[in-house]
Amino acid sequence: MTTPGPLATATRAATATPSPSATAVVIPPQPMSGADGIKDAVASRSDAIGDVVNTLDKLAVQVGATRFSVWDLFVVLAVLALLISAAWAASRLSSRIISRASSLDLTQRLLTEKMVSLFIWGLAILVGIDVLGIDLTALTVFSGAFGLAIGFGLQKTFGNLIAGIILLMDKSIKPGDVIAIADQGGQYTFGQIRRIGIRAVSLTTRDQKEYLIPNENLMINQVENWSYSSRNVRIQVPVVIPYAADIERAEELMLEAARSVKRVLVAPPPTVWLDSFGENGVAFVIHVWITDPEEGVGNVRSDVLKTLWRLMRENGIRVPYPQRDVNLRDTEAMRDLIKALRGKADGYDQA
């Protein structure tokens, strides 16, 4: 048997694999790379500032393999404040620039403004992650939880955001439109759209009440848009005249009253329809057209009726009062009641 030489023995010893039990792997604490780089840059400028930075960096907490210090917290807050201020200023500046774009209409400007704002804030988030040196692979669990939160808790919020963008893209509802929307009780809310926000639409009524309607409601509910394709709106004014009145003359007075109102359009012209024969008189409906529904419709109806009231009085036509015919049956009880009433009346006359 041949004994290996000294050279072979040394070679085997050098290439031998160490035992796993004899090897210890030590993972040093990993600070935030962004904060660490900023610390080195600041410390290189001045020794005094470097001492302060090092002191803040020594006040740290170890969480798993990550080390958080007071300096890291200071850097995170400073970067967040700087990025939020820069993104807010850039968003305001872009809004001013887009508002001056005369080639775009109001809806296109709003849509462009929102898209640019989302891009600026998204870019600010990415820049902040890059500056702070955050490892995106460490956010895998957080992103899953965030997606779950969107699916449940933030579903309405993101639904309203997408609905607002769709409303601006198809131009079905835009600022300045006059709409009427029904609530869950079936009552209609009438007003003018002031603005379309990320979450809700601002609707202002004639009494200056401002309703914030979620964008999603305007997508799934029936909405009456009075100025979608045309701003002309027809208003109906019901009128009742007595049966003894001259119908032709009454129609002339109704048309004259409708034409006297300034907001009523000449074309299409006002018209009068005989609606029905009611209990108290003949029912008519005056149809008038206006082109400014945001100024209200009740005041137009009121002006027409007030003018018609004056014209009817001047021409001897009265507004009919409610009339009822009472028929009494001839029964024993009715005759006894009449005799009793007559007896009381005679007693009062003798007294």
From TrEMBL:
Mechanosensitive ion channel MscS C-terminal domain ranges (all copies): 236-318
Residues annotated as domain Mechanosensitive ion channel MscS: 157-227
Record's keyword annotation contains Transmembrane: yes
GO molecular function: mechanosensitive monoatomic ion channel activity
Membrane protein topology class: Multi-pass membrane protein
Ranges that cross the membrane: 68-90, 118-139, 145-168
Domain Mechanosensitive ion channel transmembrane helices 2/3, residue spans: 114-155
Compartments, as annotated in UniProt: Cell membrane
Classification via InterPro entries: LSM_dom_sf, MS_channel_1st, MS_channel_C, MscS-like_channel, MscS_beta-dom_sf, MscS_channel_2nd, MscS_channel_C_sf, MscS_channel_TM-2
Family: Belongs to the MscS (TC 1.A.23) family.
Protein name according to UniProt: Mechanosensitive ion channel protein
Originating organism: Novosphingobium barchaimii LL02
